[in-house]
Amino acid sequence: MTEPSRRDPTIGRATDEAQLAARRAFVVQLRAGSEPAQRRLLGRVEHVSSGQAATFESLDELLAFIGRVLTEVDERRQDRPGTSAAC
């Protein structure tokens, strides 16, 4: 895991924003009882741009949801002319 950046926030901003596309953004809310250090995660996740949401009771469930949604997003982008999944 990387440490929070302490660099000048204006350096590399355009590159960072391109790599952090909103269609790949998620909100994760952890419930009481979650213990991330022990990989025990309980909560809710929501895909920002589509509004798809799910509850999860494990890291595997959280990652499965994220993987499924990103696959759907990439497939939809590939189906549209003039777009690329890498964006």
How does this model look, in words?
The chain is of the alpha+beta class. It has a domain at 22-79. It contains two helices and three strands; from the N terminus they run αβββα. The mean pLDDT is 83.
Largest pleated sheet? 3 strands, antiparallel
Helix content: 25-40%
Structural class assignment? alpha+beta
Mean pLDDT: 83
In total, how many beta strands? 3
DSSP strand content: 15-25%
Encode the helix/strand succession as letters: HEEEH
3D shape: elongated
Distance between the termini: 23 Å
Q: Regions with pLDDT < 50 over 5+ consecutive residues? A: none
Order of strands in the sheet with the most strands? 1-2-3
Rg for CA atoms: 16 Å
- How many distinct helices? 2
Q: What layout of secondary structure does this protein have?
A:
Blueprint: H1 13-19, E1 26-30, E2 43-47, E3 53-56, H2 59-79
Antiparallel strand pairs: 1-2, 2-3
Outline:
The chain has 87 residues and is an alpha+beta fold. It has helices spanning 13-19, 59-79; strands at residues 26-30, 43-47, 53-56.
List its traits.
32% helix; 87 residues; 2 helices
